[in-house]
Amino acid sequence: MTIKKIVRRAAAVTFTTALLAGGGASAFAQGNNSKDYKESYGFSHITRSDILKIPEQQKSEQFQVTPFNASTIKNIPSAKGVDQWGNAIDLDVWDSWPLQNADGTVAEYNGHHIVFALAGDPKKGWDTFIYMFYQKVGDTSIDSWKNAGRVFKDSDKYLSNDPILNNQAEEWSGSATLTKDGGVRLFYTNRQGWDPANGFFGKQTLTTAQVNVSKPDADTLKVDGVEDLKSIFDGDGKMYQTVDQAFGEGDYADNHTLRDPHYVEDNGRKYLVFESNTGSETGYQGEESLSNRTYYEGSKPFFEAEKNKLLFGPKKSLAALANGSLGIIELNDDYTLKTVMKPLIASNTVTDEIERANLFEMNGKWYLFTDSRGSKMTIDGIGANDVYMLGYVASSLTGPYKPLNGSGLVLHMALDPNDPIWTYSHFAVPQAKGNNVVITSYMTNRGLYADQHSTFAPSFLLNIKGSKTSVVKDSVLEQGQLTVN
């Protein structure tokens, strides 16, 4: 019996049991539809009620991504590479993340700040690999970023006897931490190729390596290879959907995610928070999920009206597949998997994709951020060009998480994706002092312009006070700037 059929049968048994029991935390609500139920699965949710507040709320200047002057934007001068024939080319550079201390602040490595970023040939969308850029502490200009080149050699994936790594096609985004012994530990997404005929469905796997970095002279950092390159987690089916659950029956309508590992520590314990989809025991996808009141929140009339709008509207199929989540696993001291934990938050019926998990502690509270696209959402009033950073706050790392600003909205941007100053992949970088965080991102979609490439966008400041956030007016910084202290 396939996983999807098992899930459907389990759901049917649950419905019957709840009806016979006549009550309980997950029993179905009394009403005309006997399939209605309410189940939180023991973690927080991005609800339809909250997200429906956003279309009106996003009009406020408080949430607007700071506009930039296109005439001042530069490509990263050091973003150079070679094509397949060895010719020098200018690279696109998009998702990036700094080398961070265990508390999330930007680390200093031998007098430098380090940023890892996805980069590649603008003419080849599949050319997606991790490069290391660095800048002297105190420098902020786009011209001061130097490029140490690709982190991994093509042959690195074959060094260990790791069958997942052996089939890696691309390197996708992640995080990096400065370890207690001064080493550079990188976490990233190993993405396999897409070849269904031969059993490859673009599988994503959380992966790690130690990156050996040397300093040949006062102005230069060098990548001296990697060690301990290994897979960590590729889903378990119960807490988090696997690629086989998503595509194993030959239906490729789903949007499977298991990527963007973000490293965080709490009381000396090591964790990865990551983009994912819920599994069979944490609120799986399917038409049955549209009857779970937890995913809606609000009054019973609101639930009935919104549910019927989905069941009999054009977004039904998309909502039924929407089970995005921000997952968490605990690691052993050697960065192998220790424990698979329940998600921190999920977006069932809202969207299948909440990206770039980002989590840190600030002033005694834990702040959880994620990026999402309106084109992937199922909410009326949200358009295809809308881009968001959403945020949530809790008193402990594992929650429960409550939406910032009453809805979860932190940042909004709605430029045409073909606009050269379009931005995405917004990432909050906590500072050593104060209530402001630096927001980094990239700008310009790949391959659209001959003379402008995907590059670091100008950074800007976001103020955080308790459960409220606001963009700091006139706080535009240099392209790629990480710190203000």
TrEMBL record:
Name the Gene3D superfamilies for this protein: Glycosyl hydrolase domain, family 43
| Positions with a binding annotation for Ca(2+) | 254, 285, 323, 352
Q: One Pfam family for this entry, by name?
A: Glyco_hydro_68
Q: Where is the signal peptide?
A: 1-29
- Keywords of the record: Calcium, Hydrolase, Metal-binding, Signal
- For this chain's UniProt record, which GO biological process terms are given? carbohydrate utilization
**Which cofactors are named for this entry?**
Ca(2+)
Q: In the UniProt record, does the keyword ATP-binding occur?
A: no
Q: Residue numbers for the site described as Transition state stabilizer?
A: 260
Q: Which CDD domains match?
A: GH68
Q: Could you say which residues bind substrate here?
A: 94, 173, 259-260, 353-355, 373
Question: Which residue windows are coiled coil?
Answer: none
- Provide the active-site residues from the annotation: 95, 355
Which InterPro entries does the record cross-reference, listed alphabetically?
A: Glyco_hydro_68, Glyco_hydro_beta-prop_sf
Recall the GO molecular function terms of this protein's record.
Answer: hydrolase activity; levansucrase activity; metal ion binding
Instruction: Family membership, please give it.
Output: Belongs to the glycosyl hydrolase 68 family.
Protein name as catalogued = Glycoside hydrolase 68 family protein
Q: Which organism is it from?
A: Paenibacillus donghaensis
